[in-house]
Each structure stands twice: as C-alpha cells, then as structure tokens.
Design brief:
mainly alpha, 8 helices, about 190 residues
C-alpha cells in the first residue's frame, strides 16, 4: 500500500540560469509559480552540479553517486542497476513516484533514469506521453486503442532515438544544419 502522507517534489531546470529566477533574487516576475512553490519549500542556494552536462549530472542526482562512481557519462550509457535511484528508494518505502520530463536526454533515452517511477510522463521525443484525463475526454474504447498505438510507436521509436545518442554517425548527423529543424519539430526536442 502506498504512503499518501509524504510529498517529495524535485524540480530540475537543466541549463536554466538561477539568476533569472525570482526565488534567487531576480527582480523581474519571470517565474511566479516557481517562486510561490519555493517560498514553501526547501531549496538550495549553493549547489554545484556533479557533472559538466545533463547525463552525468542527472545520473548523480538520481543515484546519489558521483560520475566517477556511476560512470554514466555519455548519452548512450545506462545507469547500472547496482545503483538504486531515488525513485526506487521512495517507491520501495511506499511513496507514489511520478516523473514529468521535457528533456529527451532524461525522458526519452533508455538510460535507467526513469527506473523506480510508478509513472513517468515524457513530453519530448517522437511520441510524447502525457497524463490521461481522469474525467471526460475521449471515448473509452478509442482511448484504449490510442494507448496501444502510442505504446507500439514508443517501442519502435526508442531504438531510433537511442541510436542518435550514440557517439557516432547518427549523433553527428543530428548536428547537421539540414537535420536540426526536422529534429526540433518532428522530434519535439525540448518541447518545441
């Protein structure tokens, strides 16, 4: 039975400048909802990223280990199962865990970062997943069919998306000027 008395919300703004957030002293109202949330929350003012980019930093954030220990350094690396994630620990303790992500390096790649979440909603990638409406919305048989269809598309698209994370020709092709517009639009990269 899941424990309903505990709430842990971890907000990660990968590559967002802290000096443009009101809770950290920025005087323009650029982040009113985040500022309101921070006013009732624990937040850190002197945190230092353990890695120089998204993959090792998130692997450390989720595992509690430094990059030299977990060795998840590149986009095609997978966080080893020997490292239990924060979501694993919370879920095993009876806390319902749900992830919401708009970063394909965290939410699309099969790198172990989603491990331990009861639900994980990925808003990026070729086939985004979003929470179902609890009431109303689509006719139930159609919703079930649509769900099966999107699951199939995800299974088919993951190997392709993961191939682009490998440090080889696919990754280099993804950086070519003619490919970038297609990647950003069709791939819904970073929510665009």
């Amino acid at each position: 039975m899941k424990n309903k008395d505990k709430n842990v919300v971890m907000v990660v703004l990968d590559t967002h400048r802290f000096d443009r957030i009101g809770a950290y002293g920025y005087n323009r109202p650029t982040t009113p909802n985040l500022d309101s949330f921070a006013s009732e929350s624990l937040f850190f003012e002197q945190a230092i990223a353990p890695g120089q980019w998204t993959i090792p930093s998130h692997a450390s954030l989720f595992s509690g280990e430094m990059p030299a220990v977990h060795r998840t350094l590149q986009a095609d690396d997978v966080l080893p199962r020997e490292f239990q994630t924060l979501a694993d620990r919370l879920s095993h303790s009876g806390v319902t865990t749900t992830g919401f992500c708009n970063n394909p390096l965290v939410g699309v790649l099969q790198n172990g970062f989603k491990r331990g979440f009861d639900q994980f909603y990925n808003y990026s990638g070729v086939v985004p997943s979003t929470p179902q409406k609890v009431q109303g919305g689509i006719w139930q048989p159609f919703r079930s069919l649509w769900s099966k269809y999107t699951q199939l598309l995800r299974r088919l698209s993951y190997p392709i998306q993961n191939a682009f994370a490998s440090p080889n020709e696919f990754f280099l092709a993804a950086l070519r000027p003619l490919f970038v517009p297609m990647w950003t639009r069709a791939g819904n990269f970073k929510g665009m």
